[in-house]
Specification:
mainly alpha; 419 residues; globular
Length: 419
């Protein structure tokens, strides 16, 4: 009989931060009409001004950063899962590989309704690096993470162009693929839409990620999250709080010059410079702002008022994969021609409001959840000696407890994100 080994207790700020990231992804995708760029053409001037402001705010705050937080926490969760298995004397690595295979299935489901392809497929491919480095030292993982985040492939192409003016980036044909995706999406045939998304759409997404530096950045973020987990930096302590304060200051100071340099580089007449050096600096300024968001969230979470205000995001974060996929399905139904086709009538501002309403619907559905086991369900229903109806005040609290347990352990999340 094996001795009982306690799992690492859930770290509340991580679940809340993941919930924040998924909410931010929803708002970005809403502005983009879930990568279906069809918008009103005859809006009044005041609404155009408001739309431009809305677009700038949402993209400045969340575009490229919410995904980065999601990736960072992916690596962190891998550490927690590995650590729990190590305490039992087991190697989590091969089980993780199986979960990556399952993630491909969930990525395919999500991509069926998301014409630009799906980041989950990228995660399932790049996630292999976590398996490979799982037994490395902390120092080796940190050095590798920094190396990957420096975007070495982009710099290779740039320096090659200095020595060989004829050097050019490989043409992956991403533009042509996305044009074909746009054509069948606008045609409105549902089955062509689904089949095209899980084939051409996924291919276009992966090829775009190569050109945009996302492969190496994602790998670097995974390893950085793994390193944060090993150092237990999300665990509340005075020492860790000082770390996040220092990280916030350093990232905030770094962001402005990195952003300015990126803007300056993007004014170059050379497409190669913009696609190499420009991409690297764009990744760096977004990473700096990502750290600003993460550090700010962790620091503020120590304040009781902020913690109480965002505490329910923990439930939303525990159901991150479910919420992420249902966002895509709902967005497709709302905006695309096979559904309600509201895209031509929704500018950026209205789209953000729709995204926020969708978030509230998801939030209300998961801030309670569903029953985990029949025994708990019977107890909550008053059958197992509770002696009250589910509508009573006492049983309402019991239902919330049971339902939250289900969300924490639901299959679609437990295979990858639970710990």
């Amino acid at each position: 009989m094996q001795p009982t080994v306690n799992k690492t207790p859930r770290i509340e700020v991580v679940d809340a931060l993941r919930g924040f990231a998924v909410m931010a992804i929803l708002l970005v995708h809403s502005v983009e009409h879930f990568i279906f760029p069809v918008y009103p053409t005859d809006s009044p001037e005041w609404l155009n001004i408001l739309d431009n402001g809305t677009f700038n705010v949402i993209f400045s705050l969340f575009a490229g950063k919410s995904y980065a937080i999601f990736a960072l926490l992916f690596g962190f969760t891998f550490y927690i899962q590995c650590h729990n298995q190590q305490k039992k004397g087991k190697d989590f690595g091969y089980r993780f590989l199986w979960r990556l295979v399952l993630l491909v299935a969930f990525a395919t489901l999500n991509a069926a309704f998301f014409p630009a392809g799906d980041v989950l497929l990228l995660f399932s491919i790049v996630g292999i690096i976590l398996f490979l480095v799982r037994k490395w030292s902390d120092k080796a993982i940190l050095i590798t993470a920094i190396f990957l985040l420096l975007q070495p492939i982009e710099w290779y192409h740039y320096f090659m162009s200095l020595f060989d003016p004829s050097h050019a980036l490989p043409d992956l044909g991403v533009g042509a693929m996305y044009q074909e995706v746009a054509d069948y999406t606008k045609a409105g045939n549902f089955w062509d839409f689904l089949i095209g998304n899980i084939t051409l759409g996924q291919k276009a997404s992966l090829f775009w990620a190569i050109g945009a530096g996302r492969f190496l950045q994602t790998a670097g973020l995974f390893l950085m999250g793994l390193y944060i987990g090993r150092k237990e930096l999300f665990v509340t302590s005075e020492l860790h709080l000082k770390f996040w304060i220092k990280a916030l200051i350093l990232a905030a100071i770094s962001f402005a010059p990195l952003y300015s340099l990126k803007e300056l580089i993007m004014q170059s007449d050379s497409d190669l410079v913009k696609q190499t050096v420009g991409t690297a600096f764009d990744m760096w300024q977004k990473f700096a702002f990502t750290i600003v968001l993460v550090a700010s969230f962790v620091i503020l979470y120590q304040k009781e008022k902020f913690k109480n205000a965002v505490a329910s995001l923990r439930f939303y974060g525990k159901m991150s994969l479910t919420n992420y996929i249902t966002q895509s399905i709902a967005g497709a139904i709302i905006y695309f021609p096979f559904g309600l086709y509201l895209a031509p009538y929704c500018g950026y501002t209205v789209s953000v409001l729709i995204g926020f309403v969708l978030f509230l619907l998801q939030y209300s559905s998961v801030n309670g959840g569903y029953p985990d086991t029949s025994k708990d369900l019977w107890k909550a229903s008053g059958i197992n000696g509770l002696g009250c109806s589910p509508t009573s005040k006492i049983c309402h609290q019991e239902w919330r407890t049971v339902l939250a347990k289900y969300h924490q352990n639901s299959l679609i999340n437990i295979f990858l994100f639970s710990y």
